[in-house]
Amino acid sequence: MKTIEWIGDVDGHLRLLDQTKLPTETTFLDCETPEDVYGAIKRLSVRGAPAIGVSAAYGIIVGLRDVIQTDRATFDQQFNKVCTYLADSRPTAVNLFWAIDRMQKLAQAESQLDPAAMRKRLLEEARTIDDEDREMCDAIGRFGAELIPQGAGVLTHCNTGALATAGMGTAFSVLYSAHKQGKNIHVYADETRPLLQGARLTAWELLQHGIPGTLICDSMAAWVMKEGKIQAVVTGADRIAANGDSANKIGTYSAAVLAKAHNIPFYIAAPSSTFDLSLATGEEIPIEQRDSAEITHGYGKQTAPLEIDTYNPAFDVTPAEYIAGLITERGVIQPVTTEEIAKVIAD
Ligand SMILES: CSC[C@@H](O)[C@@H](O)C(=O)COP(=O)(O)O
């Protein structure tokens, strides 16, 4: 079952597994317009930083259907309009902007191609972004598994698996590789309030792959650590600043602070496309604010009085000093400093 799939040839469309329906329903969304793709990203039908980037790259192609018979200037105008539109779907995951930027650079470099040829070339690029993400997931898994001790309990937060990427995932790929290597790990998945990506998605993926796991509420993490059940924490990231400060799903910072208090290593696993070296520190990372209904009406049922004020930041930033290592497809960055990151990530 594929999370993201391009159906057909250049005139095809994007098919996404609708993650808002999991774990109870497996349904797919056929995206035929940029509006379909924008909506799917915004409402989290497709989510997870790398998956958002891959979806946006394909989303550009569906927005270029009506301009292949025109001249290149008209094509470029529509292309840039679609790119700007999709870039507005979510603010925090830098992979979205990274993928769109890559498509724009290609269009600039191939200015001699006519619209039909350019659209074909852009589809090839989107497929390359998709394939590369799969390979990056595998490499992250290989490097990360080395850090996981035999028999470890590993806490993770949010969902970072095949649903969040084009491959086996980022943090989840580390867990998957350690499991495949026979390390006899046990995963503790935080439920991840308010949208329950851990409960709905990570729990589902653990079962799919037969990885031993236990679902806990976010508020239980400290106690589970205190009980000695956790030997490592591994999460993903949506954007990593030049100094290593890492934005990820709200609650990640809490897990990092708790890990430090219990002397447990806290790792972030992310591909190079998640690094934003243009930002010196995490203070500059834009944090998505989401609708209060996600807190007051968790999955439909009203759980709070409507008159209460709410605050719903979707991400937080874990300071670099809490991170024992950044697991990338190019190796593990340790210690997490601006200098070490620049050595591995700057091309
Ligand atoms: C490989 S995914 C890394 C992150 O994107 C993931 O941990 C996360 O925070 C996803 O948030 P979401 O709001 O579900 O898109």
Brief digest:
The chain is α/β, with parallel strands linked by helices and 347 residues long. The protein has eleven helices and 14 strands.
Question: Could you characterize the architecture of this molecule?
Answer:
The chain folds into two domains: 4-137, translation initiation factor eif-2b, domain 1 (Four Helix Bundle (Hemerythrin (Met), subunit A)), CATH 1.20.120.420; 140-345, Rossmann fold, CATH 3.40.50.10470. The chain contains eleven helices and 14 strands. The chain has helices at 34-42, 49-62, 72-87, 94-109, 115-145, 171-180, 197-209, 221-226, 252-261, 293-296, 338-345, and strands spanning 4-7, 13-17, 28-31, 153-156, 186-190, 213-216, 232-235, 239-241, 246-249, 266-269, 275-276, 315-318, 325-328, 331-333. The strands form three sheets. Strands 6-5-4-7-10-13-14 form a seven-stranded mixed sheet, sandwiched between helices. Helix 6 links the parallel strand 4 (153-156) and strand 5 (186-190). The radius of gyration is 20 Å and the shape is globular. The model has no long low-confidence stretch (mean pLDDT 97). The structure holds 5-S-methyl-1-O-phosphono-5-thio-D-ribulose. Pathway: Amino-acid biosynthesis; L-methionine biosynthesis via salvage pathway; L-methionine from S-methyl-5-thio-alpha-D-ribose 1-phosphate: step 1/6. Keywords: Amino-acid biosynthesis, Isomerase, Methionine biosynthesis. One of its GO terms (molecular function) is S-methyl-5-thioribose-1-phosphate isomerase activity. Belongs to the EIF-2B alpha/beta/delta subunits family. MtnA subfamily.
